[in-house]
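Teaching soon. Invent one.


***
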Amino acid sequence: MPRSLEEILAQADDLADTFEAYEPRPEDRDTVSPVTQMRLAALKRAAAEREIAEAVAAARESHTPWKVIGAAVGTSGEAARPRYGRKHAS
């Protein structure tokens, strides 16, 4: 299920638009549907991915090795590079 950073960020933008246009109904005030919970979780994940991508870009600008970046994000440097490398930055 790994998706690209671009797909995650695009989904975050779509979800943000959905939430901005949402008008709650009175019955929505006391409960949160499972679908809404999933959307909120996806939005949080996308925000975290954006923050990670920005931090990786800053780390690379300061010449931090991919091995160190990979360890910081819980993967190898080899896996972090294609996911967060310059051609994938937003």
